[in-house]
Specification:
alpha+beta, Nucleoside Triphosphate Pyrophosphohydrolase, about 40% strand
């Protein structure tokens, strides 16, 4: 058994939207991350990954995104021992101003450039790798 999780690398004005995960979260509490969440079973649905990501982004930071493009996928184990398949998408910011809408999941938001993210020593390696991959797709490298 495993969890399917989706994350959005949201880009606007040369910066990426990152969130600080709430201290209430079971996994990676207090760390900076991309916006996202778990796929929930809610009947037969087309584009379940993309629709889940759009819903999670709206619920957590109050914005809408479009033009989702696959970045990568990975497998990891949570702090509590659950296996997770994680899929990252590059997203265009469509509308709204982001804010920590769901305080149980997000305590703060930040806009950071690719270089700023890469320069922060204590950011998770997987976050830096996802940003580098999304940046390559964005800029066609």
């Amino acid at each position: 058994m495993f969890i399917v999780n989706v994350e959005g690398a949201i880009y606007k004005n040369e910066k990426w939207l990152l969130v600080r995960r709430s201290e209430k979260e079971d996994h990676a509490a207090g760390l900076l991350s991309l916006v996202g969440g778990k796929v929930e079973i809610d009947g037969i649905t087309s584009n379940i990954l993309e629709e889940t990501l759009k819903r999670e982004i709206t619920e957590e930071v109050g914005i809408e995104v479009s033009n989702l493009k696959y970045v990568n996928s990975s497998l990891f184990e949570t702090d509590t021992g659950l296996t997770v398949i994680d899929i990252v998408f590059l997203c265009e910011h469509q509308s709204g101003e982001p804010y920590a809408k769901c305080l149980d999941e997000v305590s703060d938001i930040f806009w950071m450039s690719t270089q700023e993210i890469l320069d922060v020593a204590d950011l998770p390696v997987y976050l830096k790798e996802n940003i580098k991959l999304a940046d390559k797709i964005l800029h066609g490298n």
